[in-house]
Automatic annotation (TrEMBL):
It comes from Rhizosaccharibacter radicis. Its main location: membrane. Residues 19-30 have a biased composition (Gly residues). Residues 1-17 have a biased composition (Basic and acidic residues). It is a single-pass membrane protein. It is found in: Membrane. Keywords: Membrane, Transmembrane, Transmembrane helix. The chain crosses the membrane at residues 37-56. This is Neutral zinc metallopeptidase.
Amino acid sequence: MRLDDERESSNVDDERGATGSGGGGIGGGGGFGGRGVRIGGIGTVVVVLGALYFGIDPRLVLSILNGGGPAQTQSAGPSSAPPDTGDGRGQTAPTRTAAAGDDDQKRFVSRVLASTEDVWGNQFRQLGKSYQQPTLVLFTGGIRSGCGFAQTAVGPFYCPADHKVYLDLGFFRELQDKLGAGGDFARAYVVAHEVGHHVQSQLGIMDQVDQARAQMSDSGRNALSVKVELQADCFAGVWAKQADEAKHILQTGDVEQGLNAAAAVGDDRLQRETRGTVEPDSFTHGSSAQRVRWFRRGLDSGDLHQCDTFKAEQL
């Protein structure tokens, strides 16, 4: 990707080097992709897509990262973790133990975030709306978010309660080494997927989803979660298309990296690798084929109106 000459976003909050622990909140898991905690896309890319918010079981991802053993998890919805009061009744407040240094990874994600700001700012203006930029929080070990306390194992996630994307840069190593999805564009896809959830929040889609979920069974909620995650994949594709048309950021092989990343975090592939069987009714992010299809749809069209997974006759 050609991002070396691009600006860096001012909306990056570097909390790396802070240490802390919490009782309750978001437990170990992994993946990337969702609002809440599981990164469902790329970002959802490992298995992170919607863990926090949708209560998705992150053990599928964690078992891959740990080489197969089950993990104990807790799930929590937005704002489920008590605020830290400093008196022992809430979570232990993180303490800064090391200076958060500037590095290539931070600069890269900052430039990707800046690119999403440019693209979605322009898209919202065309809709007659104002785009409120999200903050990207970098952390290591664990972080207290508006959606509760999350550990690194949860993976990248978007919290709709505070409008922030949370990312431990170590996730990129797992994405490459454990899931075979490396490269700059694969990493950019993770960030763009999580920002896609912020776009959903800004457009009011998340509020509509919340209302619908309250009246659904578990299987219905899972199916709705898949639509949310696939739309975020499509929005990630829209960003890539629009950014490339504006500044020619894509190079040979980048698209393939993105498609590979989308396929790597498909529910069917993760379940097959961890369980040996596939249970479509339990999908929360979509199959590899679906994730690739919707990411490609956004990438080919560059049109957010082509990303309406909720009205699609076939996902």
